[in-house]
């Protein structure tokens, strides 16, 4: 059904990426392209200047590793690690890369009071393409 699918993920144990990958496979055309994306929050410059340079490089490397490890469960997927504001970045990336479907989790498991977390809400509201929300 879709040819260019973006799967933004959080890299922590609380978020179940398998459900997102299953949805991606199910909604994909046979020749579809998958991109698994993680957006790291930018560290404010007044904090960054206090940190040893290694600390920033290490956190980037660790995120890259965790992202690749997770995305390996979605065969054929490429990965993209970015720094910025998650909601804005996801929407902009989708617009600039002709993404036709974004697969996003609705919120953290357990926080069922909210229908949508803040990042998911922003993506649903602003994306120009289809958005599949995992409940
Ligand atoms: P919650 O605050 O309950 O975790 P969010 O809206 O932040 O809800 O997260 C819902 C989903 O949005 C995540 O499971 C993930 O798919 C996506 N998402 C949130 N933050 C990021 C991020 N920094 N990078 C990539 N995807 C993200």
Automatic annotation (TrEMBL):
It holds the Pfam family Usp. InterPro entries: Rossmann-like_a/b/a_fold, Universal_stress_UspA, UspA. It comes from the Bacteria. Transmembrane segments: none annotated. Gene3D superfamilies: HUPs. Residues 1-135 form the UspA domain. Belongs to the universal stress protein A family. This is Universal stress protein.
């Amino acid at each position: 059904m879709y040819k260019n699918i973006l799967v933004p993920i959080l890299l922590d144990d609380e978020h179940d990426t398998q459900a997102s990958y299953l949805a991606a496979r199910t909604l994909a055309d046979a020749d579809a392209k998958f991109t698994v994306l993680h957006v790291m929050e930018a560290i404010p410059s007044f904090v960054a200047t206090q940190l040893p340079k290694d600390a920033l490089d290490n956190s980037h490397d660790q995120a890259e590793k965790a992202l690749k490890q997770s995305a390996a469960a979605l065969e054929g997927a490429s990965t993209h690690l970015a720094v910025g504001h998650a909601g804005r970045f996801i929407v902009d990336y989708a617009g600039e890369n002709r993404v036709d479907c974004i697969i996003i989790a609705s919120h953290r498991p357990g926080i069922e009071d909210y229908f949508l977390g803040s990042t998911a809400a922003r993506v649903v509201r602003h994306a120009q393409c289809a958005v599949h929300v995992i409940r």
